[in-house]
Amino acid sequence: MDRPVGQRKLRESDTRFRQFGEASSDVLWIRNADTLELEYLSPAFDHIYGMDHRSMLARPALESWIELILPEDRHMVHEAIGKVRNGQRALTEYRIWHPEGRVRWMRNTKFPLLDDDGKVVRIGGIGHDATEEKEAADRLQVLIAELQHRTRNLMAVVQAVSERTLRESATLAEFGPAYSDRLRAIARVHGLLSRLTDGDKVSFDELLMEELRAHGVNGERVLLDGPSGVRLRSTTLQTYALALHELATNATKYGALSTDSGRLAIRWRTASREDGTPVLQMEWREQFETPSERPADGVHSGGYGRELIERALPYQLKARTSYRLEPNGLLCTVEVPLPTD
């Protein structure tokens, strides 16, 4: 091959390489293996690192680039450079500080470039912005941990419900429907949770309406009074939902809604405790038209629902509760802490 043809092919090769580098969304770079000075840097550097790649080429020393990396990650980069100088490939993940004030994750593949004698004369690299992948992996780990936590809680709740339902059931025929109803209440909570977006929480009115609809509770005999969108702590939902389920069950089977003239009023509002803790205060009031309509105390005493409200809610949720049978009905109050975020 004559000299002019060789030079032309060399120029064409150089042009193709630069076009390739300019089109790449990853950062492509080449350093001298002896001096470690930067010889080539692709324009993708501008977007990922937040600075002009030409300014980096103007100060090509390795330390100019190292300064962009978080101090605790710099040793990995030095070790990788050493490996590539010895003819090995190296993959490193490190963090950089972006000028806009945020940390970004880089995944950098480094490899040796050899001369005809097999000597490492240059170090090539491909820098990939792995920030979104890292953040997605972190979110996945949080979701897995939350799922494991909720699953453990769910199993504990299911076990407690089964044991309590078994104790209060005289026969298997009594146990089956009661246990199924309570499991469905738990399932409704998880249905609400499954529809949430990241960082969102179930609101009290959503939880309440889901339970009332399941019992067919609606119409003129039911008064609902309170703000919408009061978000509850996710850790409170299962126990709170079971308490609402038991209240609604008792109201329709034995309480005010088991008669044609009874009334149910549910009121709620937000407030603060003495120490500033935000809380939701709920009042559940059932009223019969006449005291004679109210069932005997043993029938409408509350059973498992009352036990949940008076014992489980205060213990598990740090709630303040009361459950009082009155001459013409029932008054139940529940105050639970709200999330602060």
UniProtKB/TrEMBL annotation:
EC nos: 2.7.13.3
Residue ranges of every copy of the PAC domain listed in the record: 90-142
Keywords from the named record: ATP-binding, Chromophore, Flavoprotein, FMN, Kinase, Nucleotide-binding, Phosphoprotein, Photoreceptor protein, Receptor, Repeat, Sensory transduction, Transferase, Virulence
Keyword Repeat assigned: yes
Domain PAS: 13-88
Top EC class, one word: transferase
Enzymatic reactions: ATP + protein L-histidine = ADP + protein N-phospho-L-histidine
InterPro entries (UniProt xref): HATPase_C_sf, PAC, PAS, PAS-assoc_C, PAS-like_dom_sf, PAS_fold_3, Sig_transdc_His_kinase_HWE
Gene Ontology MF terms in the entry: ATP binding; photoreceptor activity; protein histidine kinase activity
Highest taxon listed in the record's lineage: Bacteria
Protein name: histidine kinase
